[in-house]
Design brief:
It contains two helices and seven strands; from the N terminus they run E-E-E-E-E-H-E-E-H. It is α+β, with helices and mostly antiparallel strands. It has a single domain, classed as PH-domain like, CATH 2.30.29. The strands form two sheets. Strands 1-2-3-4 form a four-stranded antiparallel sheet, with no helix packed on it. A three-stranded antiparallel sheet has the order 5-6-7. A hairpin with a 3-residue loop joins strand 2 and strand 3. The chain is globular and about 40 Å long. The termini are far apart.
């Protein structure tokens, strides 16, 4: 599938930083597409405003070959957690993605609500009343 007007695009680079894979990541203004497969194909679509957290991971070998993996947590039902694996310039991609996520969340007026639970205390809703 030919996609134009994308912000970023790369292939998974699992071997020596070379793009020898059938997984292609495409970042559009409002969504991230993950295309995989050669004979049977699959396209996963994640709306950017649903992304909650980004984490950059780089193993020793990934650092040697100049690639990295971005772990993503989202509010998407079909892909609550996934990874953009073995990509070039992972720092720049993570920063670009982070800014685009914030832009889309502002545009959609989506706010994230974080709840912190202290596991040491036995919290009981009746304690507040």
């Amino acid at each position: 599938m030919k996609i134009s007007n994308y912000e970023w695009r790369d292939r998974k680079r699992p071997f020596l930083g070379l793009p020898l894979s059938f997984t292609v990541y495409t970042l559009l203004e409002d969504k991230l597409l993950v295309d995989s497969g050669i004979f049977s194909t699959k396209q996963e679509e994640i709306k950017l405003y649903r992304i909650v957290d980004l984490t950059l991971k780089r193993s020793f070998l990934q650092r040697i070959f100049g690639v990295g993996t971005i772990h993503i947590c989202s509010g998407d039902r079909t892909a609550p957690e996934f990874e953009i694996k073995d990509i070039k310039t992972p720092f720049e991609v993570k920063e670009k993605l982070s800014k685009m996520v914030e832009r889309q969340r502002d545009k959609k007026r989506v706010s994230s609500r974080e709840f912190f639970v202290d596991n040491d205390d036995d919290y009981d809703e009746d304690d507040e009343h």
